Amino acid sequence: MAENTDKMVIDGVELVGIWKEFMPSRILYEDVTTEFLDEVKKLPGGSTIARCYQCGTCTGGCTLPEFVDKFNPRGFINLVRRGHYDILVSDYKDLVWKCVSCNRCTHRCPKGVNTQEVVRAIAKFLEDRKVFGKLTNDEAFDEIFMDEVLTDGRIDEVKIVKDFYSKTGRLKDMMSGDQLSLGFKMFTSGRIKLFGGKIKDWKKVSQRLKEELQ
Amino acid sequence: MKTVLVIGGGVTGLKASHELAQMGYNVSLVEKEDFLGGQVAKHKYYKLAPDMRLVSEVLDPVIKNVESNSNIKVLKHSTITALSGNAPEFKVKIKNSKGEAEETFGAIVVATGFEHFDPTVKQEYGYSRFKDVVTNAEVEELLNPNGPTKGELKRPSDGKIPKKVAIFQCVGSRDKQVGNPYCCRVGCVVSTKQAIEIKEKYPDTEVFVYYMDMRMFGRGWEELYGKAMEEYEVIFTRGRGAEVTLKNEQLSLRAEETIMDRPIQHSVDMIILAAGQAPGDGTIEAAKILGIKQNEYGYLAPKDDFLSPNESSKAGIFIAGADKGPLDVENCIVEGAAVAAKVASSLK
Ligand SMILES: Cc1cc2nc3c(=O)[nH]c(=O)nc-3n(C[C@H](O)[C@H](O)[C@H](O)COP(=O)(O)OP(=O)(O)OC[C@H]3O[C@@H](n4cnc5c(N)ncnc54)[C@H](O)[C@@H]3O)c2cc1C
Ligand code: SF4
Ligand code: SF4
Ligand code: SF4
Fold first, then answer.
1. I want to staple B151 with a disulfide (CB 3.0 to 4.6 A). Which of B145, B313, B334, B347 is the partner?
2. Which protein residues are within 6 Å of ligand 1, measured from CB?
3. Residue B285 is inside which H or E element, if any?
4. Which chain B residues in 143-172 lie under 8 Å from chain A, judged by CB atoms?
């Protein structure tokens, strides 16, 4: 037996080189790029992303992971910084925007990252790339919200949620157990009403508003 | 003028005083406490990293060298209150219980050291809200056979020996929220040492260290880190401690295990905060009275970090040890000797 493990030759066969051919390549991701980091940095609220030293304080104390599996502000930052765009899209695009802006992360970040804003910026970055379909979530929500204000002058929470999910093609998601139970809890605690109610003579105001907006 | 004033009786000041006395200088050593040895003595450190040497083996000879040297006048319970004159003829007022007196010195050495960071301001860690959240300095005292618990790690709430201990690294260091972005430089090795001490005494107790990086740059530190993992099964988890709460009357910590992308909640019996070093009030006060420059964090600033590391911004006033920034004992002793040489060459 040869001592040299770099080049182990047995019966005239150089094992190391041969092994390399047997083993499948373990490189999972080749294109590490800072392109996305640069982009997020330039978005509103994104500028502090480069300060992050990946300590995990934000995720450790974040409100969401208990309710939203895999929600991980530190992880999002890591994916952007290392340019793992496709992982961000395939695994996290529906999570990033769920941040409830409680700001625990920002208040605790030991490195001066405005984590909440950075998470928003990452969501915006994804929306700008239209990963959510034709309409982005923000755009869809804005449209429905404006519609509702213009037609009724009031927000009917149940209607707005229903319209939002149907407009973004995810009515099924709305009927999921956790969304329903959340809705029920909000209803019983008086946070939402079933019907929005009407405002007197809203038609006239609405007319004026529409004219103004044009 | 062959007289030197040394302010601060920690390892640095003690070493400097002794070296100067050996060279024939008359030294007055001013210490505000009524004991010598600085933080090491104050918090009754028992063993020193990385060799697990008994503190007494290191500190006792250093103190004895000073106390038995006729060239050194030790003034305990004393502080300086005013400075006038310039090098090499400084007039300094020294105050103690007997009153205030002015003396003349050729040079001054400032070795006023550091203070432990007070983690009360990191509210999410619950120090001072939960009894069993303690600092690393408090643990030094608990592990000392001559300390209040005779060396037993009795947790403060009920005196029981904890079965699960977590240690949070970088408390009050590497932290812009508290204004200390620098590294405390000893927290990692001290926690590793304490984890080993706990495992040695209580093999059934589990010890978990929550860290960002283990900074083991000193002599023998990396080896100690390896030993903690291999021989003592201390569990090191990469992720900074995020918060501490109470769950079913038990301490519960939250952090993210960043290697696994996994937020965790972990119930333990005791949490040790590896609180870092901060410039002490004594250092800040001395800097004001002497009129020497401090850096942005309050530590004493050398005239030139590379070229004259032991000179202050003022001629004839020298600085050494942990008052310049976090430092371990071994290097404080080196600093003490270095500053003595610098004083000697300037006072010829
Ligand atoms: C929890 C903990 C554990 C540690 N364990 C280790 C270890 O295992 N190994 C290791 O190598 N290092 C260890 N260290 C580091 C060690 O404590 C320091 O290196 C050392 O104490 C610094 O010595 P010093 O003399 O510079 O300062 P200090 O020890 O702080 O001494 C300064 C002295 O000056 C006095 N003083 C201050 N201001 C004035 C004033 N205005 N007038 C008069 N007197 C004044 C103070 O009372 C004090 O006695 C540890 C640190 C911590 C926080
Ligand atoms: S707390 Fe700040 S530095 Fe730490 S991982 Fe989160 S954003 Fe990065
Ligand atoms: S602001 Fe968003 S990311 Fe930050 S802690 Fe709250 S939910 Fe988590
Ligand atoms: S020495 Fe260790 S514990 Fe202290 S600040 Fe540096 S990394 Fe954190």
1. B145
2. B 7-13, 30-33, 38-40, 45, 48-49, 79, 111-114, 116, 136-137, 140, 186, 190, 193, 277, 280, 282-283, 285-286, 321-322, 327-330, 332
3. helix B281-290
4. 170
- Beta-strand pair B133-135/B270-275: parallel
Can you tell me the distance from the alpha carbon of B342 to that of B336, in angstroms, rounded to the nearest whole number? 10
Q: Is B271 on the interface with A (CB under 8 A)?
A: no
pLDDT in tens, B43-69: 999 999 999 999 999 999 999 999 999
Task: Judge if pTM exceeds 0.80.
Answer: yes
| Contact yes or no for B212 and A65 at CB 8 A | no
CATH fold, domain A35-128, is Fumarate Reductase Iron-sulfur Protein; Chain B, domain 2 (1.10.1060)
Establish whether domains B3-113+280-347 and B116-277 are of one fold: yes
Which parts of chain A register pLDDT below 50? 1-4
In 3D space, the residue among B161, B225, B215 whose CA is nearest the CA of residue B185 turns out to be: B215
Looking at domain B116-277, its CATH superfamily turns out to be FAD/NAD(P)-binding domain (3.50.50.60)
Question: Which tens digit of pLDDT belongs to each residue from A58-83?
Answer: 999 999 999 999 999 999 999 999 89
Closest alpha carbon to B170 in B272, B298, B98, B314:
B272
- Closest to B5 in 3D by CA, of B82, B97, B114, B99: B82
Per DSSP bridges, beta strands B241-247 and B250-257 are: antiparallel
ipTM greater than cut 0.90:
no
The top-level CATH class assigned to B3-113+280-347 is alpha beta
- CA distances B292 to A191, B113, B187, B289, B297, Å, are 61, 15, 28, 8, 14
